[in-house]
Amino acid sequence: MTLQTTSERQATATPAKGAGSSTRLTALDGLRGVAAMVVVLYHLYLVAEPVLLKAGGSGVGSPIWWISQTPLKLFSAGSEAVLVFFVLSGLVVALPALGSKGFTWAGFLSGRLARLYIPVWVSIAIGTVLVWMIPRDQSAVTAGTWMDNSQATSISWGTLLDEASLTRDSYGVNNVLWSLRWELVFSVLLPLFVALAIVVRRHWAIAIAAAFVVSTVGVVSGIDAFHYLPVFFIGTIMAVRLDAIREWTKRRLLRPHSGRWGAALVVGSLLLIVGHSLLRPLVPGGSVADTLLSQLSVLGAAGFVLAAIGVRPVRSALESRPSQWLGRVSFSLYLVHMPILATLTFLLGDDRWWLVAMVTVPAALLTAWGFHWAVERPSHRLARRITRAVSTGVESHRARSSKAA
Q: Where are the bilayer-spanning segments (predicted)?
């Protein structure tokens, strides 16, 4: 997600004065948890897809049709769920920079790097141990499929160190780390994103439209930076305008008899997220129309984040205990599920995808819970200490420089 870590969610859920005061955005924690679970289901779908295609084809009424070309697609909209992560990161990572007392860029970035890299390195270590302990026979998976092409069957030390840097385009040890690369880039560029969002805050609609256009250009041109970074920027604009968003939701979405506005926002956002899948029989894959329809999921992701903030039934569902628990372990779940899924698929074979799914889901949730307590929480504490130490050092240096001047 990527994903925002729990301590960052706690730190940014209550915005600073002037950036949307007083009310915790706990629903966004739940949204992140639901999105992480959708990513897990999406990867399970990719395992099952070649077997289901071989058995029943992709025509109307086939299992693949039901899963991928009906509203059921929402449960396996993994690529779209990552866009939700990016919007969320753009929103909640930017909030502390908007007037929080004691905030420094150096302190933020040093803590952010610790929060990202430590859990990532442990997840890579887990994936590496699993590859070494349980050999991966490529004959166990369908040739030419996602599982066959994207998962490591052997690991060199050079590859291991390369993946640990989060600078690669693809990752064989832990496939999901590609998104953490863009989280890292966004973190480094956060001052620029925040400054630009403040400049354009009065013209937010034009700015979001421009971000959408740049993202679309990125898809067409194959430039990933153009594709993904504008999605973070949309979230940053939402952070800068959080007070206005809350005021709008009070006027339109939280008053009695305002259900139609909320329903329109939720349904419209969900249709934007999966509309390209629903229209697949009418729009050829890879066409210009298909690209534009797929890109609408960027706006759908932003719309659903808005719904999580302002639509009472959605917010209540995301603030429920199951959603909040998923949100608490979401970063860990995102990091650990892929090594588990890949190992089980090569061990059991993708022809037994149903058994892979039955074992993967509880194993991933249980491992995520343990990973959260054993790795993620300690990394949060270390990151907070680093942030405080660096921020204190920066403030002390500023004070000395001011006295000297």
A: 30-48, 81-104, 116-134, 180-199, 204-223, 229-249, 261-279, 291-311, 331-348, 354-375
